[in-house]
Amino acid sequence: MEESYGLKDILISMGMVDAFDVTMSDYSGMSQANDLFLSAVVHKAFVERSLERGLEKELERELERRLERGVEKELERELERRLERGLEKELERELERRLERGLERTREGTREETREELERRLERGLEETQRELER
Question: What Pfam families does this protein map onto (predicted)?
Fold first, then answer.
């Protein structure tokens, strides 16, 4: 697709008159001859788009985006799985440590209770023996 637009009339209507008049224009910075002026201003646009190439490029970009998102999602899922497995293993280890500590405390408590019970029995036995002796 190609288009050309003459802008001379539009620019003159906007007040840019001197640039198009040989007696009024001043382009001395570009030429010492002082005979330069604008005869026309043209805006030309050219657009070429191959529908097939454009669709191919768009499909490639979309495929890349989907692959990137898919890879990112897969990586996120794998990271979550690893974190969950790590947390599960850590929780299992912590439970095992607590169970072991609890069992040790129970054993110590049982030993302590047993010693206290023996001391009580011994004390009672001594008291009974003393009462019998006193009779």
Answer: Serpin
Taking the mean position of all CA atoms in its chain, how far away is CA 89? 27
Q: Give me the pLDDT at residue 69, please.
A: 80
Report whether 22 contacts 37 (CB < 8 A): yes
| DSSP for 34-53, written as a single string | -----S--EEEEE----HHH
To 10 degrees, the CA torsion angle through 6, 9, 12, 14? Answer: -90
pTM of the model: 0.34
d(C-alpha 135, C-alpha 121), whole Å: 21
Pair 34, 15: CB distance under 8 Å: no
Q: Which residue type sits at 28?
A: S
